[in-house]
Amino acid sequence: MTDIFRKHTPRFAHRALVDSGSRPFYRALSDRGGEALIDGRRVIMAASNDYLGLSTDQRVIAAATTALKRFGSSCSGSPSVNGTLLLHQELERRLAAFLGREAVVVTTTGFQANLAIAALLGMNDAVFTDMSNHASLVDGVRLGFAVHHKYRHSDMAHLESRLSRADPALGKLILTDGMFSVEGDLCRLPEIVALARRHGARVAVDGAHDIGLLGTKGRGVGEYFGLDDGADLITGTFSKCFGSVGGLLAGPQDVIDYLRYNARSVLFSASMPAPAVAAALAALDIVESEPERRDRVFDLTERLHTGLRAQGYRTGSSMTPVIPVHIGDEELGMRVWQGLFDAGVFTNVMTAPVVPRGRALIRVMVQATHTEAHVDAVLDAFASVGRRLGLIPPTAPGDFPPVVLARRKPTPSGS
Ligand SMILES: Cc1ncc(COP(=O)(O)O)c(C=O)c1O
């Protein structure tokens, strides 16, 4: 007989992790910002998606505190019944104007915003997804009924062949992350939009990481590519650039109205608590009024990314504050993580199944609230750990590929 609870067979990475005594996951932090306190030790926080540093901004905290006192700690109900406050409607209106879309519906998490897409995926539809899409998009597709076609990461020829072979009678949706959360690269939006138009498909982009960060006004990957109207539907989260928690879907009024009444992750979950809504609204003010925060995070990213390449690390095709440092072997990845932690730098180690087996990487992330001294300390830690473990040469190689970043204006090549 099979015991349904017997699911604990450790994956290799987890066994290695337990054996090595490393504890990269579920570590409790006692404060936040560019630094954190872990087990009484102060470390540099290089593992947070708080790119603009707004989760500890005093204006955001004050807005959340006021809302907490006025509206309480919970809405105690879903948006369709008792869970809609004027504050939610204000956030939806403000976001629709910010993103240049007819309407927005907010959800309790970004994950739920992506699950809501399932309501669009009926039996007479086909969905085309990038193989590196976030788990929440993967699950949104699983909950729908559409025929599912996966294309290799950012491989436009593969996407085109998938589109060409699909039944022309089906409704079609291309679904992609805007900025990929592990590799820090961007979707090839101009080509995706061109293919969509040619094949009568709609485009949905998950802007979880790029809304607030990319483009002159912070509107995300569409603005960065000069294609503000490129995506027919945008999803997003407040847990990265907006110092809060919650999610959004933005698009045509009739589609958003349809989702309000048909998406189960919208309908059947208690709505965002007022302090989270107020925090997101205050963060939106800052995203709109302080573009220099985007410049700051890209300045620091340039310093860190260039420094890592100069030391001899391979950092993939990231154009953003998410920098993947490729290691390969999973056990080695754990040792690098531990070495960095011992040196006072908290990073993420990514192993299978998040990345393919044998392609472990350390993900380092930059925040506008970091200082140059933080970045230099991270570089020193990588240099000493990398030399000790034989990952990089003892002296810096003279030649290394230049770092190309998705700063406010796209490069002339559009990359
Ligand atoms: C690309 C992407 N989409 C969606 C989500 C889910 O967002 P949330 O944390 O608001 O549930 C995440 C969070 O990690 C993400 O990285």
UniProtKB/TrEMBL annotation:
It catalyses: 6-carboxyhexanoyl-[ACP] + L-alanine + H(+) = (8S)-8-amino-7-oxononanoate + holo-[ACP] + CO2. Its EC number is 2.3.1.47. One of its GO terms (molecular function) is transaminase activity. It comes from the Bacteria. Its cofactor is pyridoxal 5'-phosphate. SUPFAM superfamilies: PLP-dependent transferases (SSF53383). PANTHER family: CLASS II AMINOTRANSFERASE/8-AMINO-7-OXONONANOATE SYNTHASE, LD36009P. This is 8-amino-7-oxononanoate synthase. The lineage of its organism: Bacteria, Bacillati, Actinomycetota, Actinomycetes, Kitasatosporales. It comes from Streptomyces abikoensis. Keywords: Aminotransferase, Transferase. Residues 47-382 form the Aminotransferase class I/classII large domain.
